[in-house]
């Protein structure tokens, strides 16, 4: 693997940028592997990387139907934060945040993790009480947050509407929150996994599973059958489709979540702001685009495309926060397909089929979890037991009722 | 934006409706005869097909009636609209 | 100086000069000019600086495919960043400036980036800026990025939205669109035809083509006149189709006032149209592709079709002495027409070894030098091109032999034409490669056919025939594909593909070398096609270069997805009326004016503007609340409770339905009596609570919390219509029909007895938890003796219109007894003193009845109800669930709701035992009162705990939730 640095760029500059090696090999599938990861998004690639790096498994294949990073990893608003309500969630997302903070250096790939802070606003008395409840939960769970009154929020976020429809009474800041370059996360993990010997196989669609006696024996793909008795699936958005191939159902419904970017502009917003009243959140990318999103489209969908109603609502919410953006123009809209579960908490661990493990149910927040989701799925695949950080996220909670209802508890959409 | 042909009011824009999710889910009971797993299945587990989905919608800002539709979840094409007590339509690709 | 005005120009009015300002200097153009045409006419070539390397750039296109000439229009509140100069209509006083150049366009300090270009190719930032971390470098990168500046003031303009239906929507006002509109309009169908620009006729207007025997302008004028005369046809110019969405919905953005001087603008600035059409005809035209050769970004290098458009529309020669470089016929025609308008064509270079004879002959006749089988190798010039090198191509399309340098003031290029397939593709239409055009053309799409150049048909006759349903198969002369022009196999690192994002052919090669070979990877890695022109000039060239590099055919490479909008759209137009109160209506109480007159402080609670309290002069809010609470405890208070949900449930099966809805049994209730009930969702979570009243054997009034009236009404209907369809019940939400006043306090009965009524308010005649209908102060009234304050209390409902009369009657009768108005915070204090549950404060998405003291109700219920099964799951019956308790603060000071509760000794551990759900200062007890949900709370009464709030620790004790009149004696007075 060519090590990336300012020096390597300088050298390459003198030789016309000709000496770069592929960031990862295009591998062809072998007849069998020690472990197979289905899904070439951030979670799948991270899983493959940690299988190799943490667990020493090198005979690993990652199967991707299209091109890596092409699902939700490449279609989100890149927000990373760990300001959750319940300890199980905060611990898990805080672990992810910690890995993110060291990821560029670990992978020798600049994922541009930008610690610009994330604000959640409160609009009325009840909202302030709920925000304080969340702030204290986060502090008790070890996530550093600050609570400020409306005046301080407006001082810290220049340009915030002084007289919005939904007043800003208070704000909760997680200074460690931020954004990252989403594609780079996928590519960095791919390059890292490839360097450790993982076969990254693109254009390889999973068509079915070889299951005998309730145990997985292999996977059938568009590029041939692969024998393997330890398989992890990380195909959020399409988890139900994959589960159906393995003969079971999941407590998941797929919805389209849209995101929008404006034309690029000089820096005007140096943080991330979420207004719970409208569900709209916005940040400005390093390229200068306003990146914003809002609520889900309201019916089940596998269509990765935008629609007008969600766009109109999101823009209206954005303009309530920042009325000066009304004259700015929208450049693009798109949608990702997200796994929605009842309690807004992921599913990580065993499936009804032995040897087939789940990483799904991320709702609208899968990107921020990528390092931890991959780390824990790798642990599950390698050891056959759940990682302690993910133990509460088992599928069994839907039977026992031990749900971890983040959205309902904090009043904040996840 | 979907255009939904309400059986009572005719074609109206998505704005007027609310999707109630998968239809034809039988409520198990009485409670003392329902196992935890069966109850979880009823509450949470869904077919979630990539393709034709039988789902119920409410004409919320209209007649206030619930009805069923068959809708493709990939291209959102609606292939059947039928009443709550009507039988399921023939499946389509 | 290069460009100049020539004759012609169908769009401009030479009798109306227009003064404008560009980059701080004053210029003049004509009405009908665009900013780009007027600047070109004034000889301006330098329009901007590129995104990354800050290279000097000129205009290359004549429409919204323009990647370079990006401007900041106007200043202050009216400013708009990133507009495309060829699409900005000139108006008197227009003031525009380039973006991304500092201190000036002529001298841009960031141009130093260009010197380091070889070291900072595409995606270089993924490989560096990692030590010590990205945060060190990011601020400088951010400052350098971005194009224009965001407005800093609120938008002074308004935006409109509308919906429209028609039989046929024709997108595009060129020949194809006009012909299609005529065809359908004559057939009597309702037709809406839109064009994005100001003018009709597309590329043909102002030209020399002959259409059905007429000169092009005459044909267009005749078509427009006929369409305008048809009552079933609507024409809208300045109306751009921006997106195609589900079920055939097309969004249009109409620019209503952008072309007018600022002072002359009235009404909405732009309008969003949502159009549903039976049939959508896509006559969106085609985009010309640049040629990718070294220094092809020097100002003065321009699309040949754009030069022709400036000549036809605006009477402007973009160059007076240009070289034409092409791989197809279209640029030859442009050359001849420009020559006719006064340009001296320095040379024509065609990549094809044998262009059509008649073209070569015509060039020779005009004395124009012709280079066949040749292509431009390099443009020379800094802020304006002054020469171009032309060299021969070998059979593989590589430059060979010596180049000839030709002096010129412009290079007009054509790399072929790509149909504008955006809307087709957004509609779900498939694309195929046309081998003659070397571009993607739409495959037939039912209900939304493409026509004319948008379908890859560049023949006037065939387009007209197709519009009339009699077209032949399209036959185009083949272009010579020439994706990037260089001497070796390696694409040139100074040959630009995406001009706005500064992506070169060399960058595409770098991406391929590093295995970013999927077209989506190429796009994301190099940012090719992601600029504000959405890759209109660059996408196909990028795909072509990748195809050459990988040795794989173009169809195998495919395209990236076409995402709306077609061109950037003003955000305000999507918001429309949804600004301020239009975003979310504030609901006003029946007596809103009376509360305001009485000095109430109003705030929004659950969508309703409600009185917080009624502070008197010199009184703080807390003091007012305390006074109001004591008034209710000691005398009598009046509170408007109109938002309380009221749902009528009637029918022979009404009781059966409500037994299935409530945790509590409802069927045993006697008519005229009330019962408190809890509703769950199927997951066993407390969803709502309230008073249910049996008005008659078959008739109930379901009371809900203020925030949940609509949702509860909808859920009842959902159960009735979808699950229990055999039940004979009707429901009606009557919340907005009845205004409700709550009179509470020990003197409440005395006050009511002072008002004329046919109802006996006597203690025995009208006991607690009963309901009476009758007349009060001459008004029809429904009165329930129920209490959320713990005092003697009546909720009096009268028709909404009668609220003020009831209010007056109560105030008048109450005055002698010291009746006091009280607001919602006093009510909350009263209920917290009593330990009464408030759904949404004490309860969350995990709270079940047994957690808040209703295990008995669950056990007593003999039949199934919504959510019942969920309350017996393993997690529902485990020990240690969070349970409702009271919290007494040791220091006697109030506690903040949202503070957390921690076991002594566990301060250093992660997590907490629960949290304060509600808290208030109790003036009744002269002590703070609080409710909390804590783990295993029922068993912890009397336990000392610690309270954590934002880093502060305090001491407290777990107590019973009810702190006042636990026996309820005051309810039964």
From TrEMBL, chain A:
Keyword Chloroplast: no
Needed co-factor(s): FMN; FAD
Keyword tags: Cytoplasm, FAD, Flavoprotein, FMN, Nucleotide-binding, Oxidoreductase
Keyword Oxidoreductase: yes
InterPro entries the record matches: FAD-dep_OxRdtase, FAD/NAD-bd_sf, Rhodanese-like_dom, SoxB
Main location: cytoplasm
Localization: Cytoplasm
Reaction equations catalysed: sarcosine + O2 + H2O = formaldehyde + glycine + H2O2; sarcosine + (6S)-5,6,7,8-tetrahydrofolate + O2 = (6R)-5,10-methylene-5,6,7,8-tetrahydrofolate + glycine + H2O2
Group of enzyme by EC: oxidoreductase
Domain Rhodanese residue range list: 36-79
Enzyme Commission number(s): 1.5.3.24
Family that this chain belongs to: Belongs to the SoxB family.
PANTHER family according to UniProt: FAD-DEPENDENT OXIDOREDUCTASE DOMAIN-CONTAINING PROTEIN 1, SARCOSINE DEHYDROGENASE-RELATED
NCBIfam families: soxB (TIGR01373)
Name of the protein in its database record: Sarcosine oxidase subunit beta
Organism: Sphingomonas colocasiae
UniProtKB/TrEMBL annotation, chain B:
Pfam families xrefs: SoxD
Top-rank lineage group of the source organism: Bacteria
Gene3D superfamilies recorded: Folate-binding superfamily
The protein, known as: Sarcosine oxidase subunit delta
UniProtKB/TrEMBL annotation, chain C:
InterPro entries tied to this protein: 2Fe-2S-bd_N (IPR042204), BFD-like_2Fe2S-bd_dom_sf (IPR041854), FAD/NAD-bd_sf (IPR036188), FAD/NAD-binding_dom (IPR023753), GcvT/YgfZ/DmdA (IPR028896), GcvT/YgfZ_C (IPR029043), GcvT_C (IPR013977), GCVT_N (IPR006222)
Boundaries of every Aminomethyltransferase C-terminal domain copy: 882-965
Entry superkingdom: Bacteria
Pfam families: Fer2_4 (PF13510), GCV_T (PF01571), GCV_T_C (PF08669), Pyr_redox_2 (PF07992), SO_alpha_A3 (PF17806)
Domain FAD/NAD(P)-binding stretches: 167-428
Domain GCVT N-terminal: 593-862
Record has Oxidoreductase as a keyword: yes
Signal peptide: none
Domain SoxA A3: 495-576
Keyword terms, alphabetized: Oxidoreductase
Family: Belongs to the GcvT family.
Listed NCBIfam families: soxA (TIGR01372)
Protein name: Sarcosine oxidase subunit alpha family protein
Organism: Sphingomonas colocasiae
